[in-house]
Write a structure and sequence with these properties.
globular; Rossmann fold; 9 helices; alpha/beta; single chain
């Protein structure tokens, strides 16, 4: 099992004070299958391999994909003796209290306790949200310094951010999710004066310069100015991303770790996938920090 600081029912003690607060990165999208956990895992390992300390928080109580990913990674470390960097991991399920107000109060208290603990002990916090609307997801969004919303590069998934006119591509109205992000931006500003850098990440990009790809780019560029997000290229549809999950590995581990003489050499598709990860890191423009 992956090392886990807390389970779904415990609250960690507060961390040390006086340290520079960690930069909080939330990966959120109210649609399943958009690549949230793959994005969160690759971003986490990229930061770890840059020498930073990273805390991760899994809020997807139905899937626990990030938690299972890290558990697979820990198993690979134990079985193969590989020196793979690991984050400080937490997972948190919603309260089971029957009264909504009591449940939300408990959720907020446990979430804030974890965040405050991590913000004082690591350089970056990466939070993986479920693909549905929930109180915990909204709470997480309000703490984001950087918000990444992966979406499949298809007009079918465009309603993640907005409803548009099918003939003109013009904005009809922001999506429910975009309105939620706007609400949490206001919550964040009122709480501590901070702001949220929102990035929409175009996942499963086609390698062909198809009309759909160009039209999606044009529509999203217009929406980014109207709704208030930046665009980032994401990951192509590659089998390797799914295969790596079983070992808890990322594209960066294939190149930067020495697994031994019997392992397969990286292929050209691996090189292209690694460049996609590096491209995402560059677009995020995360603040430079002195590693703890």
């Amino acid at each position: 099992m992956a090392t886990t600081d807390t389970d779904a029912r415990t609250t960690p003690p507060p961390g040390p004070t006086g340290a520079e607060p960690a930069h909080v990165i939330v990966v959120g999208c109210e649609k399943g299958g958009s690549g949230k956990s793959t994005t969160a895992m690759h971003l986490t390992v990229a930061l770890l391999r840059l020498g930073y300390t990273v805390g991760t928080l899994d809020l997807d109580a139905r899937q626990w994909t990030l938690t299972r990913y890290l558990s697979n990674r820990a198993t690979t470390v134990q079985r193969e003796g590989r020196a793979l960097p690991m984050p400080r991991h937490f997972f948190l399920a919603p309260s089971d209290k029957p009264m909504r107000d009591e449940a939300r109060a408990e959720d907020r208290q446990r979430f804030q306790a974890i965040i405050e603990r991590l913000r004082g002990t690591v350089d970056y916090v990466v939070i993986d949200c479920a693909g549905t609307d929930s109180f915990l997801a909204r709470e997480a969004h309000s703490y984001a310094d950087t918000l990444i919303t992966p979406m499949n590069d298809s007009f079918i998934d465009l309603d993640v951010v907005a409803h548009v006119d099918g003939r003109t591509g013009q904005l009809i109205k922001p999506s429910i999710y975009a309105e939620m992000v706007w609400d949490q931006r206001k919550v964040r500003a009122q709480r501590d004066g901070g702001s949220i850098d929102w990035i929409v990440m175009r996942n499963r990009l086609s390698n062909l310069e198809a009309n759909n790809k160009r039209e999606m780019g044009q529509v999203l560029s217009k929406l980014s100015n109207r709704i208030g997000f930046r665009l980032a290229p994401g990951f192509s549809e590659r089998v390797i991303f799914r295969e790596l999950f079983l070992q808890g590995l990322t594209m960066l581990d294939i190149f930067e770790d020495n697994p031994g003489p019997g392992s397969a050499r990286p292929r050209m598709s691996h090189v292209a996938a690694r460049q996609e990860v590096r491209g995402l890191i560059n677009v995020l423009r995360l603040p430079q920090r002195t590693p703890r």
